[in-house]
Amino acid sequence: MGIAATGIVVMSSSTQIADSAPSRLLSPGLLLLVFVLTGWSVFSLRPFVGRRLGVTDGGPWFVDSYATLAASDAVRVGLDPFKPNPLDVYHRPHSYSHWWFYLGDLGLTRRDNFALGGSWVLLFLLTALLLLRIAHWGEAAMAALVLLSPPVLLAVNRANNDLVVFFLLATGLVFLRAASPWRLAVYSTLVLLATGLKFYPIIGAAALLLVRPPKTMLLVALGTLVAGMILLAWLWTDFRRAVILAPIEVYTFGAPILFRDLGWTGPAPLLAGVLVLTLAAAVCTWRGWSLGLEDGDLRARLAYACGALLLVGCFLAGISFSYRLIFVIFLVPWLWRKISTSAARWTVLLLLAALWLDGFYCLGANIFVGPMPEVRLKHQQLIWRFFTQPIIWAAMALLAGSLLGMLRSALGSLRNSVRP
Description:
By secondary structure, the chain is mostly helical. The chain contains 18 helices and two strands.
């Protein structure tokens, strides 16, 4: 009797093991990795894919990491890297802080570009997967649509140093499983390090407004913001020399695009963008159209707030290439948790449209139209932007609405904490 029972137990356990093995092999996270690596491999091994999507022009890979190394090499030979650099493929001036010149102190030169750019891409993918922690097929599909989108392929192809910023901030967010002092210190330190490299990441410090209790929130949020302001003041000379305008074309991102297409110049586009988006965010908050960030998984909420801050802040600040949309990845975990709400579904729909529409436009133009005179090309792109700009504006309005709700919640928490 005992032997038979034991046999049944053993057989049952072995069946359990056999049944669970395929589920581990077919996990959504693993298949996402395989799918993304396959897509990136096709993109890299079949150059016509990138050309049809308008992501590449058939030139060399990792041109942005090359520019960073060229700036470091320019310093080493006595050239001014903030002027047009003859050592770069496209003679681009350095557009970031002087911290990147320490690559030369590490012994890295332009000859190491493939290793450097490739490592940036791998670190980006690794931290993206760690942050996402995919456990559901729907979430895996959403993440795949982001990671295989043309703006992300653009960042990967160029090895833009936004990938390094992503790696630093995502690493800090991965550690934020709870609001313990040392975990908050890690995140704050990595925000400051990213700020020293590329200026704009200081915006991500405002995500700490989600931390509770209010005294801890004040300490870490204000402390990080003040330290960031001091750091930017120290790097002010680099900042003034590094700011350059990006051309307005497909795969560009920023609120001023719409106003400049309408003929506005000077500071008017910046001011108009801030005013319009603030008003739109207030409406979204009032109507309940934006996602709330008050309760739930802390890491997912902080990641969403950080990604929304970076996207909205950079959108308002000026015009950049759309590889800045890699930070949409930060939004995925919280969007998936709230996917049953209409606010989350509309945010996902608008963001995916913003990520993919330019790629569909380039694909259609390259397949069905072909080469055309530059004047006609610019005219068609202008019409296309008037069609697509409302989509990206609506997406940014929903994100800004969430941030406005976060600010209102933080102020309410502080007010309640000082009441008798």
